[in-house]
Specification:
Blueprint: H1 22-31, H2 35-41, E1 74-75, E2 80-82, E3 94-95, H3 101-117, H4 124-127, H5 139-146, H6 154-173
Antiparallel strand pairs: 1-2, 2-3
Helix pairs in contact: 2-6
Length: about 180
């Protein structure tokens, strides 16, 4: 039973498992709805689109502010901690049952992110993409999709194109002219 024509439960797009191949990822891919439908159902907040912004991972700091002290952290039910709930890579998860939060935050996290970042080059095709300001690519999503931090995600590219289309439509349909 629903009070709405549109019902959505769970993530706005279905992330893969971080383990390439297998039937689990195939099932997830089959359940994804089209990017056009996604934008229609879960309209993005276009008020924060900044067309002058640049791709924020051009340097070696691919995790950006996400992994910096004072940021967020996620502890799973097994006592593993990481700076993001989407991080599934065992190299970026720390077992709190065998150490302290201070050890994780002050020692493990900086070393682990530095080790990964020195071997990662973000997707080259993304640097020249005109839809950067509409894109929600991040290295954690890339890892979930491809088990690597530096891969382009085709679904998110399509989603960014659909978001740009919606933004242009809104600008066109909500203009006012004064004399």
């Amino acid at each position: 039973y629903t009070l709405s024509d549109n019902v959505r439960i769970g993530a706005s797009w279905l992330y893969l498992s971080g383990k390439p191949g297998g039937s689990k990822n195939q099932t997830i891919i089959k359940q994804r709805i089209s990017a056009a439908e996604m934008v229609r159902i879960c309209q993005p907040d276009l008020s924060c689109i900044d067309k002058s912004s640049t791709f924020n991972i051009a340097g070696k700091d691919i995790f950006g502010n996400c992994s910096k002290p004072g940021g967020n952290f996620h502890i799973d039910p097994y006592g593993d901690i990481s700076f993001c709930c989407y991080i599934t890579d065992p190299n970026l998860r720390y077992d709190l049952t065998r150490g302290t939060f201070a050890e994780y935050w002050e020692d493990f996290l900086p070393k682990a992110t530095e080790q990964i970042e020195k071997n990662v080059v973000p997707p080259v095709e993304c640097f020249n993409c005109p839809n950067q300001s509409y894109c929600s690519w991040c290295p954690a999503y890339s890892y979930l999709e491809h088990a690597r931090y530096d891969a382009k995600i085709d679904y998110l590219c399509t989603l960014s194109h659909q978001t740009e289309k919606l933004h242009k439509e809104q600008l066109r349909n909500h203009q006012r002219f004064f004399q």
